[in-house]
Amino acid sequence: MKKRALSGIKPTGNLHLGNYLGAVKGFLDLQADKEVDNFYFIADYHALNGVPNPQDLRDRTLHIFKALISLGLDPEQSTIFVQSDIPEHVELCWLLTGLTPVGLMERAHAYKDAIAHIKNPNMGLLCYPILQAADILIYDPQWVPVGADQKQHIEISRDLAEKFNRIYGETFIVPDPLIKEDLAIIPGTDGEKMSKSKNNVIQIFGTEKEIKAQIMSIQTDSTPLEEPKDFDACHIYNIYKYFATPTELTKMQDNYRGGNYGYGHAKLALLEKLLEYFAPARQRMDELDKNEDEVRLLMKKGAEKARGRAQKKIQQVRKAMGLGEFYA
Ligand code: AMP
Questions:
Q1: What is the pLDDT of residues 209-230, one digit of tens each?
Q2: Which of 91, 120, 262, 324 could be 225's S-S partner, Cβ–Cβ 3.0 to 4.6 Å?
Q3: Nearest CA to ligand 1 atom 6
Q4: 3-state secondary structure of 98
Q5: From ligand 1's centre to the CA of 40, what distance in Å?
Q6: CB proximity list for 293: less than 8 A, separation 6 or greater
């Protein structure tokens, strides 16, 4: 039997290099494996934690959906859908809350990081990993391909699946995270984790002008132009290395070592590389932008495929927990 992989991306901003390298690239590898049944969704319920403007949320959801297809996810081969088209995710989330210790949520790294700069965190932020567990467990995937930043959340999903199975009988598959350890966490323009909420991203589908401005804002040290530079410590190089060929990489390292090569030069080389690398995807995005009816039809089909599965699972869960079934 085919194994299932499932993952999601929040529509809190436009798709960036961290999402591509940490997540989408892995989705594409899995899609290429004919033994894997792939489910990918846009996590718009999760985006509500930031209380977005409704029109912005719609626009970003549509953007991420189109971005996934532009980058090569194929709706014929993978089930691609919008989370809020499947309200069963929210029901399962509630059904899991009774099994979730408050302390477990309070200890989650992402929550601790968030409350370090958010004064009044909302319940959505605290309960985020429970909804994430519901998103995953409702489709019975064996694998959850994510970036290294999500490792702890997947462990929480595993804990909840195991606990549910112990109490109510075998119901959920306990999923494994699929993390490309060598990828670690992709740095943003400030060297911190690239993140839509931190204003440090490099977008994939922005205009050339926007992408150039984002690259130009990458922080560097003040080593003068003439002097040799340490490429390993440079945020520009640490993004460039994921896209360059081995020959291009050696050349870039020589440039850094040799001196008379400024950070401005490296930034332009990165811009050129990214535009070349993403040219086919950017073109496909332009086509989808002009054909939104097609996009909406693909969304509908994805939702229908996913919902059928989610509804079956939620019936099984309700039965196991003693809910409903009082009449035919
Ligand atoms: P999010 O945008 O937080 O919904 O993340 C979507 C996916 O992108 C998740 O699998 C994350 O692990 C991955 N991701 C987001 N930012 C980064 C980053 N800076 N480095 C690596 N992976 C990332």
A1: 999 999 999 999 999 999 999 9
A2: 262
A3: 9
A4: coil
A5: 14
A6: none
Measuring from atom 16 of ligand 1, which residue has the nearest CA?
Answer: 18
- What the chain holds in terms of domains, given with CATH numbers, is 3-186+292-321 (3.40.50.620), 206-277 (1.10.240.10)
Pocket (CB within 6 angstroms of ligand 1): 7, 9-10, 18-19, 22-23, 146-147, 149-150, 185-186, 193-196
- Compute the distance between CA of residue 42 and CA of residue 260 in angstroms, rounded to an integer: 45
Identify whether the C-beta of residue 150 lies closer than 8 Å to the C-beta of residue 178.
Answer: no
| Token representation of residue 8 | 């999601």
User: Closest ligand 1 atom, CA of 183?
Assistant: 21
Q: CB of 186 within 8 A of CB of 239? A: yes
Dihedral of CA atoms 61, 65, 68, 74 in degrees, nearest 10, equals 160
- Ligand 1, atom 8, residue with closest C-alpha: 19
Q: What is the DSSP letter of 170?
A: S
Q: Which of 160, 245, 194, 225 is nearest to 22 (CA)?
A: 194
Query: Which one-letter amino acid corresponds to residue 61?
Result: T
On whether the CB atoms of residues 276 and 42 are closer than 8 A, the answer is no
Looking up tokens 């994921």 gives 242
| Encoded tokens for 69 | 């297809």
Question: Could you report the per-residue pLDDT of 106-165, keeping only the tens digit for each?
Answer: 999 989 988 998 889 999 999 999 999 999 999 999 999 987 778 899 999 999 999 999
Strands in 176-178's sheet, in edge-to-edge order, are 78-82, 36-42, 3-9, 143-145, 176-178
DSSP state of 194: P
User: Which residue has the least CA distance to atom 11 on ligand 1?
Assistant: 147
Q: Are 69 and 298 in contact (CB under 8 A)?
A: yes
The alpha-carbon radius of gyration of the chain (Å, integer) is 21
